[in-house]
Amino acid sequence: MLEQRGNLRRRPAGAVIGRQRWNHLLFAHWTVDPSLIQATLPPGLNVDTFAGAAYIGIVPFSMERVRPAWLPPLPWLSWFHELNVRTYVYDEQGQPGVWFYSLDCNQPLAVAIARRFFHLPYQSARMARAAHDGWIQFECQRQVAGAQPSNYAWTPGAEAAPAIPGSLEFFLLERYLLFAADPAGRLYQGRVHHDPYRCYVPRGARWSVEPARLAGFNLVDEPASVLAAWPVDVAIFPLTPLASTAL
Prior knowledge:
single chain; mainly beta; Acetoacetate decarboxylase-like; 7-stranded mixed β-barrel; globular
């Protein structure tokens, strides 16, 4: 599967439909029993593991310059924040990718478009990011009953490098394929392309597990991995139906 991940790093054929920049990225990951993850996945997807462990990730970041490929970025529309809860899976062809449990976002139009056209579980939220005393601070409050605020903070790093193939960092970060399901349960795949993340371990970090709790996971221990990354410019490719090997 390492070879599959390497192949997905290559720019795919086909037309780019969108462009955006991902900035101020934090990746906090907890180990979870693979059977718990598998029980949440739709037929056709399998939990992906590293050294026998499955992972739940909480990833806050800023979306910048978001627009269709044929348009320039627009003030007030193309800059916003996102926080996703995710795990790692592979399909029946062995292609590794990301399965999202939720994607909090403070741009209502982006929430509507992603839910309607990409079948992704976007959620409306109040969100903010700031820099203070050498820390990047990120706040999120999902707009649903019973949701509690979640806060994240980490120290920016000057030294950063791409993850080494075969490492845990490579397993967690080097993902260029997402899977989604429509209301009828049909599976789709979507490709993105960007340079490999230049990642680092923050000197300090604080986090919340509230978004994972809303997804049904009780994360009580410290994260197994906390990474941050420099920004990447991203090309978005069309969502396509997922081929099945079922007879």
